[in-house]
Amino acid sequence: MVEFVALSCRSIFGVTTSLWSLKPFATQILSIKNLHVIMSDGTSITCRADMRRYISNFGFNFRTIPVPATPFKWSPVLPTVSMKKLDAIYEMRWAKKPNIYIVKVDATDSAISDAGFQYFKECRKVEVLKMNFCDFFTDVAIEHLVSGRPSRTLRNIEIVANPYISDNFIKGINRIRGLQRAHFYFLPCVAEQANAVRSLKASLPCCRVSFPELKEVGYGYGCTIEESNASYPKLIHEITEHKLLFLLANFMLFSVSIKPKPLSLPFLQDFKN
């Protein structure tokens, strides 16, 4: 997902994972054609070509960036290491990197599975994450998200139209302590919607929470909802024909308990060529 972009620079822009250790997970990303990433310097990146040009502008050559001899592995010991020490290790390893990070990811209409969320774990400055009409990930993806740095940096999260997210995803969202806005809509497997909102407001009192009842197909921005100290402008997004067909097709599969599987897309070869 976001590391589709960071992947090509092998940890230059605030990501410390190894390219090769995450290679098996990369095939879990089906479609990233609509991915939109904003960097901390304001640069907008929407495709691999943009990122390659962006990297070359800093004097880096993808083919000459060193890869660790020992593949990086996610260890249960890592959470016990202080963030200050991890930062020191990172700065030592990437002393010549530019001080630029990924801050916003809009993956609307992209097909990303649970494994793809592991790329977020070492994103150091990501603040905004929009996952609208992305129906290949489940509650497991949220666990991956909050087990890394995004649990400390994320300020805005938006999830709309996902048939597999259940009530359990709230437990993960509650762990994002700095969250300032959370918007959810069209999540049919969340049975206790009112309880979910109460839990979020209790755990994150400074967060603007919106989880309106389903009224029409769209993003749910214009529905009347209860919020703490805030009200959103009325803004209903018209859903395009292809989004509607995509949504209906997947919900028909969901109704007969058939979960669509992402196709293998070994695009990593493109990076090496």
What does this structure look like?
- By secondary structure, the protein is α/β, with parallel strands linked by helices.
- The chain has one domain (2-272): Ribonuclease Inhibitor (Leucine-rich repeat, LRR (right-handed beta-alpha superhelix)).
- The chain has helices spanning 2-7, 23-26, 48-57, 83-93, 139-146, 150-153, 169-173, 193-203, 241-255, 268-272; strands spanning 29-31, 36-39, 44-45, 102-106, 111-112, 128-132, 156-160, 181-185, 208-210.
- The strands form two sheets. The chain has a seven-stranded mixed β-sheet.
- The longest helix is centred in the last third of the chain and has 15 residues, at 241-255.
- This is ATP synthase subunit s, mitochondrial.
CATH class: Alpha Beta
Percentage of helical residues? 25-40%
Q: Provide the structure class.
A: alpha/beta
Q: Report the CATH architecture.
A: Alpha-Beta Horseshoe
Number of strands: 9
Stretches with pLDDT under 50, minimum 5 residues: 1-30, 224-242, 254-273
Total separate domains: 1
Q: Name the overall outline.
A: globular
Number of helices in the DSSP assignment: 10
Order of helices and strands: HHEEEHHEEEHHEHEHEHH
Properties at a glance:
273 residues, alpha/beta, Leucine-rich repeat, LRR (right-handed beta-alpha superhelix), 10 helices, 9 strands, disordered N terminus, ATP synthase subunit s, mitochondrial, LRR_dom_sf
Topology:
Blueprint: H1 2-7, H2 23-26, E1 29-31, E2 36-39, E3 44-45, H3 48-57, H4 83-93, E4 102-106, E5 111-112, E6 128-132, H5 139-146, H6 150-153, E7 156-160, H7 169-173, E8 181-185, H8 193-203, E9 208-210, H9 241-255, H10 268-272
Parallel strand pairs: 4-6, 6-7, 7-8, 8-9
Antiparallel strand pairs: 1-5, 2-3, 2-4
